[in-house]
Design brief:
The chain has 131 residues and is mostly beta strands. The protein contains one helix and eight strands. The relative contact order is 0.25.
Length: 131
């Protein structure tokens, strides 16, 4: 009887001591008047062909729309985009932006709940102008 109480106690401690899972959704918003073409290269392990997630995606976002481009569930919280994406290349009308979209300061993050964050990257027409 004592042995079963010890085992039950160990199981309860193990279950209760686990870190909660945090969820992070990543969106790209197109504030341009034209479509934008987005090429995303995901970090190894963040996207996996075996799980149906490709390492590279290519898609178009229409004007004034946004698209969910990634979501992550992790045991710990993170505040850097490089954890999930390897590179983000955005093109509009055959002009490739030279903006560093992996710079987390460009992303607007909003806490939706204690364990759920949404981050939005807004792409502006100025991103495609010559310097």
């Amino acid at each position: 009887m004592r042995k079963s109480k010890i085992i039950l106690s160990i199981i309860l401690i193990t279950i209760c001591s686990c870190d909660p899972t945090n969820y992070h959704d990543f969106y790209i918003k197109n504030s341009c008047k034209d479509d934008i073409e987005v090429n995303i290269y995901y970090r190894e392990g963040r996207a996996n062909p075996a799980s149906g997630k490709p390492l590279i995606t290519n898609f178009v976002i229409e004007p004034n729309n946004n698209k969910l481009v990634g979501n992550e569930s992790t045991i710990s919280s993170f505040d850097y985009i490089n954890y999930y994406f390897d590179s983000i290349i955005i093109k509009k009308c055959d002009v490739i932006s030279n903006i560093d979209y992996l710079d987390y300061s460009r992303w607007d993050s909003k806490k939706k709940s204690k364990r759920h964050t949404e981050s939005y990257l807004t792409v502006y027409p100025e991103d495609f102008e010559d310097e």
